[in-house]
Amino acid sequence: MRFRSFVAFLAVLSMLAVVPAAHAADGNTVKIGVITSLTGSQAAFGEAHKNGYMIALDEINAKGGVLGKKVELDFYDDQSKPDQAVQGVSKLVDQDHVAMLLGSYSSENTKAIINPVTTHQIPLLIPTATADNVMDSKSPWVFRICAGAAAYAKTWIDFLKKNGDPKTMVIVYEKTNFGQANMQAMKAAATAAGIRVLATEEYEAKAPDYKAVLRRVKDKNPEVIYFCSYLLDATTLMRQSQEVDLNPRYYTAAGTGFSAAEFPTAKGAGKNAEYTLSVSQWLPEAPWPHAKEFDAEYFKRTNTHPQYHAMQAYQSLMTAVQAIANAKSLEAAKIRDALKNIDLKTSAFGPVKFDANDQNQHPVLITQIQGGKYRVVFPADVADAKPIIPAPKWSDRH
To answer: The whole model's pTM is what?
Structure first.
């Protein structure tokens, strides 16, 4: 009896052992894991991610899914915390057995998951993290669809040289991987271009008051301020810039908080956002196919217009599913190889093709908030408005 029970127990174990291999495609579905920030300080961006993913998912499944199966998204909320993002990799891969991963939102959280992803040998497609050190590992399993901090800085220098050629700058950045990476990239690019960086001012994102930092910036009297900030701090920074009467010629930023859909609204900086310049990787007015259709669908679902974070999520899922289709398999190595060879020329996000470092060479736009709306002001060949420089002094605004 004991022998029979032991044999039966081994049989059950052997059955359990083979289950994970099938889980990426249970029945008629293909599971893809998503790590993003649905709660916590980055929740606004995570929600934009989710909206973009869901639009893509509905389009994909309406056309029959992939490999003859329906696509299913398995969301994991990293709570805007790196350690939670790491736990998400284990949960999605070891327990849910997804075919590949998309995420996270912030550079801090994304950097934290690179090693676990590489250890698990599962493809990861990064939609939004701009710190270039997320790609430093050279992991063959990691791909980034968005442009990075160095590309931002390069585009900014090109813009500034062609629009007033300022000579001095102060960089204000939050103490995270995103802020530090963008500060370093801009400091190097500005110095090489002959723009004197008078100071770099670091701050804690959760601090309620930045007036001391802003007064130090005011004392330096730079022509350009370059902010590397998320939404909550970007909102406070601009309100308090008005309160301390800080008047640079250029208010510029490394995207993110200064490019969030909420930033020019009452949920963000409102009127204080006016005339700020920021990088962007997509707008509905961008000269790429179906950009306006995505904007219309997003507005229909949310009653708001999207910024590039939602589009990056949308395009990441579209790219992932195309890679699975090209691989004709759910084997991780075959999906990875398909990503390396993907070449999408007509996506709503612009061309998608990864270089030798698995980085998509995506163009960067510069926008300015004019009349409460983001307008493309650079490059000139795709601009729909001219930049307003200098930014009017606070005392002259109405």
So the answer is: 0.85
